[in-house]
User: Fold FCD domain-containing protein from Pedobacter panaciterrae.
Amino acid sequence: MTPNPTESLIQLDTSSLVDKVEANLVKLLVERKLRVGDIIPTELDLSRSLGVSRTVVREALLRLRMMGLIDTKKKKGSVITSPDIFGIMSKSMNPHILDQDTLREIFELRLVLEIGMADLLFQRITPKDIEELKEIVKTEPDTAKDHIFHIDHEIIFHGKLYEIAGNETLKRFQKMLLPIFDYVHNSGLLKKPAQIQKFVSHKGLIDILENGSPELFRNGMRNHLENHFLRIFS
Amino acid sequence: MTPNPTESLIQLDTSSLVDKVEANLVKLLVERKLRVGDIIPTELDLSRSLGVSRTVVREALLRLRMMGLIDTKKKKGSVITSPDIFGIMSKSMNPHILDQDTLREIFELRLVLEIGMADLLFQRITPKDIEELKEIVKTEPDTAKDHIFHIDHEIIFHGKLYEIAGNETLKRFQKMLLPIFDYVHNSGLLKKPAQIQKFVSHKGLIDILENGSPELFRNGMRNHLENHFLRIFS
DNA sequence: TTTAGCATTATGTATAACATAATAAGACTA
DNA sequence: TAGTCTTATTATGTTATACATAATGCTAAA
Assistant:
């Protein structure tokens, strides 16, 4: 084997100043174990102690802000906030910008989530939740009648399920994906037309939640989402 | 009911200049339907045509860059790139920064994903994948022997499953969450100690993939992850 | 004691200047 | 003519300075 001439070269540091300052600040947050609500030094202070211009500090702080690590107020300075994982993500979640493959994949993700969360549902569902679900299906519109309203209703029902799952991160994930689902539904990305008839209805799912098991629910939901699966896998 | 005195007040626009420029640029990208690789005007041009300082334009561009919408090179200017949804997200995914509740929730998310992706697996798995999985379990270490190595092996096996699922977005999601899983495992966040014995082994899962059904796999995986569930729900 | 107004302070914005890296153009040589 | 080296150009990266603006806290007047 011929020796690779680039082998002995060290990796050059091509990162910009802002990159370094950003890394520095994150390191500071981690190592100092700063708690939510703590304030960090002002831009001018940081600029002085780090030996870079205020502009660079500002850009680094902007990044932290976008990551949801800090919230900066006038006069006060920047305070540490509970990081918002999905904050930025949802901003770049513009369906018009994402390419079709990604859209299809995100749509698949929904199916994965709703089938996979059965255990969480059964662990945390309360009688009150059951009542609320029943209330929701009571106002269920006729499938064939009003398509738009039907989609809205779908969102309400399934949204309630996410709520019951009691996982805030999961719920926010869904909330972020919602516009995508909507977009995919209306975009013609799904090949086959939706079948009107559902095998397992919303009402059926509630029955399972009340008297069944996670296993039954997974199959029920799988069945309920059958249409979507068929449309994706065509 | 007494009338609300604030009712007739219009919502003030508290957004900063940078906010507006950012929105403007995103709108530009969407409406012009610009394709990946297209270049957008230089900072100075934008600053002139938008009537704001270059500073503001720079900050707005920085945000777009963080969203993965553009990639800016010296001299060339900024070019549009395929948005990287998880790019920024993974940067703020520092386990040391996330609070414990969020960590627990993200860990739950893993369980949801791996149970929920059964259908994708069965749709896309190939004989070659089965072989590779078998190859992986062949080198499976003794559970009781080397704990660290055992975790590594877990990651390899389950990572392969994500790969088989054939959903790039899902895979990258998992990749992003990996450090979290690792951290949670080692952090003492999980209450009960792990049980050594697994009901359904990796080998068992492979058998199901080869001869079983999605339904069987979901239950198998549910069983396989039983330990994790118990530790979370305590 | 309350409130109106002022001072203070840190971020937001603007401008100008220079550094640096990537590209293009031109000149020079084989 | 082709190829390479040098130089010029251009757009981003960085610095410095100044002023605007909003939030906070203090002070004095009612």
User: Anything to note?
Assistant: Residues 86 and 163 of chain B are 17 Å apart (CA to CA).
